[in-house]
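FW: tagging you since you asked about this chain on Friday. Here's the raw sequence from the shared folder, copied in full. Didn't touch anything.
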Amino acid sequence: MLGRATLIIVIGLVGVAASEAVELNPGDMVLLDRLTWGINASSAAHLQAVGSERWLQEQLHPAPNAALPDAARKQIDAMPDVHKFPFDIAVSFDQQAKSANQVADPDQRRAAQQVFQQAMNDRAKQAAARSILHALYAPDQLRERMTWFWFNHFNVHQYKANIRILVGDYEDHAIRPHALGKFRDLLLATLHHPAMLRYLDNADNAVGHLNENYAREIMELHTMGVDDRQAALIKNMYAKSELASSVSEGFRVRDDVYKSISEEMTAANRGAVSPRGFELSARRIGRLMREQFNLGFVDVGGWDTHVNQGAATGYLADRLGELGRALAGFSEEIGPAGWRDTVVVVISEFGRTFRENGDRGTDHGHGSVYWVMGGGINGGRILGEQVKVDQANLFQNRDYPVLT
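HL: got it, structure written out here
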């Protein structure tokens, strides 16, 4: 049976030693533990003084710039670049990189490049230190918890390009101010920040050369896929081109397959999804193309392996097995005669990085492969330029390079 609990806290706050016994009931202890980065003497005493309801309102509606203790603020203010604009930081580091690369002597150039890399690493460490100081000592603890949550949702990989020098500003000015606000404001702030522009390659956009990485990621995270309205927009894009009839035919194949699968799942097992998954779609496409269509396309989800990707076994291996069974099923359904005149192209909409991230997965990358198969294909070969996968050939030291 739970009665009252006594929590004894002895903690040294920034520059201030505190040692006091604070008596909290179990509910208040849970509240502090869930909505803060940990119970300490000051937070326990404040909650006891104002009561849980007022404390919760203070956390939900904090001051725009809740003050850190002076000692913590001084540590942050002493960090280089903390009060500079991201553009100025990037220009300064670009100039340092250019100077290092122009050193004539190879050994001296290597040393200058190492100094440049270390300076970027230092900025990343300082960004992490700022996060920890805020987590430990900010009075608006709920905002700090939500800052961490949204920072993981709108994640950027700090070792891509020069993101190390921008990640601190990204958290301070794109994430934290909007962590308890409107989602639209948060989304726009992350969209326009240089760290996200660089991470998902929006910085590479140019007239006639659009990069879709960011748009695709937002669609995957926050929509349920291509609906009828979006399909109509895509068809309108090609309406006046020679591909108009092919695009319309492709959507008809998709719609027919989805309709037939939906009807079957509704009739069988009260709407439960078939365990055959994509194999069922592929077999239906095979039958439709055998009987009446010449072109079809289908998108297959489940390939975003940012976390726990696995190797010979695991999440990715399971998805590849399902893909292989689906392609084999398509070949069976279209039949030997149809297979002889059919070409299947499997395309990944984005590559994966070579280097593993901190969550035992891989992030979006550049280089990838196409799989081409069919009865008339002379297969069993790898075509295109090949390079050794080592540090010298990796793009931005983490990515398969684009070769063709």
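FW: Residues 1-21, 268-276 have pLDDT under 50 and may be disordered.
HL: agreed, and The radius of gyration is 27 Å.
FW: great, closing this out.
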